[in-house]
Design brief:
Blueprint: H1 5-14, H2 21-44, E1 62-69, H3 77-86, E2 90-97, H4 99-112, E3 118-122, H5 123-132, H6 139-145, E4 168-180, H7 181-187, H8 198-208, E5 210-212, E6 215-222, H9 227-237, H10 255-269, E7 273-274, H11 276-281, H12 285-290, E8 294-300, H13 303-310, E9 316-319, E10 331-340, H14 346-359, H15 362-371, H16 379-382, H17 396-405, E11 406-407, H18 415-430, H19 436-453
Parallel strand pairs: 1-2, 6-7, 6-8, 10-11
Antiparallel strand pairs: 3-10, 4-8, 4-9, 4-10, 5-6
Helix pairs in contact: 9-10, 18-19
Length: about 450
């Protein structure tokens, strides 16, 4: 219906002779109605698409401070840029520094409540932050937004025996048994398999050791006695452990723990494991392995990058770490872990969780797997390694290994403290200054004191 000015004028002329009060009111009402009709028409014209109106679903701007130890050398800038692009309502501020500088600075920031909203460090450090009230428990976030079946068990590296989850992995770095194929072929010794036990490793090491007079020109195995690829896997395979399942009691008084340390010591003392003096004199562990001066090595996943960059011509591969005396496999996993600050504002905590969800997404986990420096925790990303053409070709030794028997290093809130005490005594044991039996007694006492005090 078209309502125009000419129609209004006609109406007035027809009623010109007798204009009562009620008629005046009717006319005024009609004019008001016409105004409303004109206004409605002009407002609705062409606006059904909603253009030009505020988006009722738009989010308020929130600031998120992300800490990056090691800067973009450790965390791909592609990941951060992707998050920023996908989350325009989050104003991201990056705090980056070399690893050592960052870890020193973060202690001061925590004391002053000026730390980032989300950052990562070693998993054991995150566990201590949880105990101190610095890290947010992410259990409810993860239960609401993640499907546990999509991830490997390493997703829960920062979970306590009580069930609190203080963070999610930045990446996982497991161990496998690396072997130099040329050394095995030359010696006529069968290559390692996934069915090997530690006794198989010891016997093969003896066969592969080459002595020239009083000098050893080739060792069967690199006898590292650091924690991850040294004393920890040796005590686990013998049925021992550092701590009990509650992570509150030392297990260094267990004879099985001593047995594992004794096997490592015997290999070094009897000369079929390369010792620390030989490694220092010959360029370090990777150099000794790559040059064929040692046939085998417990290699952490991240070191494949160094091997391929520095020793591209070495003919090598990996199998799963050997099985223990109980037939089970224990694969040490080292994790760096993201945490959300418990002291952040709730809006920043929510934004931090948005970042961690993004980090655990297919898009980002695919980026991580392609770096080669660490393993993602999402199964779909790990599946891509089956088609990898870079050395080592058998990357399933790492992925299937942690799926079968991945273990953390008995990490708890006081791990950084007791681990140093253990290492000091283990060093003395492995160079022959302290016997294994006396050493484990000393370790047990020191470790339990730390656990009781924490």
């Amino acid at each position: 219906m078209r309502v125009g000015a000419e129609n209004t004028q006609t109406y007035f002329e027809e009623k010109k002779g007798g204009f009562s009060m009620s008629k005046r009111f009717s006319v005024i009402s009609l004019m008001l109605a016409l105004v409303m009709i004109f206004t409605a028409c002009s407002t609705s014209g062409g606006s059904s698409s909603g253009e030009g109106t505020p988006d009722s679903g738009s989010k308020d701007k929130v600031t998120l401070k992300i800490g990056l130890p090691g800067s973009y050398e450790v965390t791909s800038k592609e990941i951060i840029d992707g998050f920023i692009a996908d989350h325009p309502h989050i104003n991201v501020e990056i705090q980056e520094a070399p690893w050592g500088d960052f870890t020193s600075k973060i202690a001061t920031q925590i004391a002053g409540n000026t730390m980032p909203d989300v950052w990562f460090q070693e998993n054991a450090t995150i566990l201590s932050y949880g105990q101190r009230g610095v890290a947010e428990d992410l259990t409810s976030y993860m239960e609401a937004d993640l499907n546990a079946d999509d991830y490997i068990d390493g997703l829960y590296s920062a979970q306590t025996p009580e069930g609190k989850i203080w963070g999610v992995p930045h990446g996982i770095n497991p161990v496998a048994l690396a072997y130099n194929e040329d050394v095995f072929e030359k010696a006529g010794v069968p290559l390692p398999t996934d069915d090997w036990t530690y006794n198989d490793l010891i016997e093969a090491s003896k066969q592969l050791t080459v002595k020239e007079g009083n000098q050893t020109s080739q060792f069967g195995f690199i006898g590292s006695f650091s924690i991850t690829n040294g004393w920890f896997p040796w005590i686990k395979q013998s049925g021992g452990s550092a701590l009990d399942e509650t992570l509150t009691q030392s297990k260094f008084d267990d004879p099985k723990t001593a047995e594992g340390l004794q096997q490592l010591y015997d290999g070094l003392e009897q000369g079929y494991f390369a010792d620390i003096d030989y490694l220092k004199a010959n360029g370090g562990e990777l150099e000794v392995f790559a040059s064929g001066k040692a046939a085998m090595y417990f290699l952490q996943y991240s070191l494949q990058v160094n091997m391929n960059d520095s020793f591209p011509d070495t003919n090598w591969n990996v199998v799963k770490i050997p099985k223990g005396v109980d037939g089970k496999r224990y694969v040490p996993m080292v994790a760096n872990t993201w945490l959300v600050s418990s002291r952040a504002k709730q809006e920043s905590k929510d934004a931090a969780w948005e970042f961690l969800k993004y980090y655990l997404s297919d898009e980002v986990q695919d980026i991580i797997v392609n770096t080669g420096s660490t393993l993602p925790v999402k199964k779909s990303a790990l599946d891509q390694l089956k088609d990898s053409t870079t050395k080592p070709l058998n990357k399933a030794a790492f992925t299937d290994g942690i799926d079968e028997g991945g273990v953390t290093l008995d990490e708890n809130a006081s791990w950084s403290e007791w681990r140093i005490l253990v290492q000091q005594v283990v060093n003395e044991i492995m160079v022959g200054n302290v016997t294994v039996n006396d050493g484990v007694k000393e370790i047990h006492t020191k470790v339990q004191e730390v656990l009781d005090a924490s």
